[in-house]
Every structure is written in C-alpha cells, then in structure tokens.
Amino acid sequence: MNSRCALVSKIIPFSCVDGPGSRLALFLQGCNLRCKNCHNPWTMGRCNDCGECVPQCPHQALSVHDGKVSWQAEVCQQCDTCLHMCPQQATPMAQTMSVEQVIQQIAQVAPFIEGITVSGGEATTQLPFIIALFQTLKSTPSLAHLTCLVDSNGELPISGWQKLQAVCDGVMVDLKSWDSARHLALTGRGNARIKQSIQWLAQHGMLTELRLLVIPGHSDYLEEAESLGAFIAELGDIPVRLNAFHAHGVYGEAKAWGSAGPTDIDAVSQALQARGITRLIPPALYL
User: Fold this and answer.
1) What CDD domains does the entry give (predicted)?
2) Is the full-model pTM beyond 0.85?
3) pLDDT in tens, 19-32
C-alpha cells in the first residue's frame, strides 16, 4: 500500500452529481483559483492555525494545542460558524488522510458504486496523492472495476496530465468564461492554460465532460458563442454540461448575483446548438 497523504475536506460515500452513476466523491482541500461564484469557498485555502475560529465556535469543538488548531468531531454540530469567519477561506475540519485510509473507506462502499471522483477545492493541487490513490485502486483486484475520475478547473500543466494519464479514466473540466479577461475577473486568473488542458485531454480521450456555469450578467457564453462553439466542435464528441449558478453557499459580492433559470440555460443551449453543438446536458434542477 502507499503511505502518501492528502488534506481532505470531505468524503461523500454516495454521490450522483459528481460524474456518471453512483460514485464516492473525495474532496481535497485547497484551490489555485479564487472564484467569486464558488459554492464551496471554504475549500479554497488551508488552515494556517491562526486560531481566530477557536473562540467563535459555539460548541467548543475547536481548541489550540501546541500551536495547532484541533477539531473534535464528536462535539461539532456542523453549524459552519468557523467556515464563514475564516480569513483563509479554509476549514479546521480538514483531515490529513493516507492512501490506505481512503482506500478503506472506498472498500466499504465499493459494491454499491461505479467509481470514485476526486474533486476539491482543486484536486490536482495534490497530484501525487491522486496518482498514488488511482494506482492503488487499479492494482487492487476487488476495487479495480471502479472508474477513477477527476473534477478539475483545468489549471494543471500538460506535464501533470501526462503523469496522470496512465491511471485516470477521465476528467471533468470547468470553463468559467471564454474571454480571458472575464475569466480573470471571475476567478483571479486567465484561462489560457485551462483551454490548453481541455484540448489536450480531448485529444487523448480523457475529457469526460466540459462544464459551463451560466451566471446571468457575468458569464460570456452568449456573446462569445461563435468562438466558444468552434472551440467545442474541435474537441470532438464531448458532452457539455450546462450548470445554473445559484448563490447558495457563496461568499462576498456573488451572494447578490442573480440565479440562472431555465430561460438563461435555454439561451446558451440554443446558441451552441445553432453552431452544431448538440450533446448538451441541462441542469437536473434549479435552486
């Protein structure tokens, strides 16, 4: 077994929204983007043990020992007070887990799932752990049938995808805007590397799904439909999932942004269909 470790934000044993079928979703802590629209903003940073959350916890589930913030799961009431006031956009509840520990959790639910999805935060910021985890799954006879997917923002360099290629069954990537300046405003970074990742993954049969998040008044898919449609067409027969923005769980200015409804999604869908993009997946629900 492999003793490599990762900082884990959460594990959902049964998820139907993190890839095809029922999957175990493993959320790793830390992200290299700062998306204003992030629905899990406490997964962006990493706890620096500043201790500001400790006196704010209404259930005394947090304490400081030897300069480190300690979380008591048996006392925690999941009120999320610590998440909303953390200056690092982190969580003191993130746990360091080894490949062996994660494998144990996967093994418990393996008969009932089709695979695992490693998400985040941004999963690929802990790439060596993902590679070790997937290698272990592929080499364990009782788990080798599980598909191994990554949900990513696409910021990983091509050299990283090449390292992952041998053990990864597919990657789902978000393209949060077409225009790089717009992407910079939304996420803190441009999107040149993300577009390169999307193209490389498609060329090598690893792009499971391209995801577009429709944010009324902020995403640019409609105004850039011509260029976006041509880009998607060149990727080949790739599913494009249209997600609808909602402000639930969002911090900062995006809390005041309007949610996307069926009309917003239909407009983007029709614009892409008019340019030959037909393998579109609408939202399962609107919040």
Assistant:
1) Radical_SAM (cd01335)
2) yes
3) 889 999 999 999 99
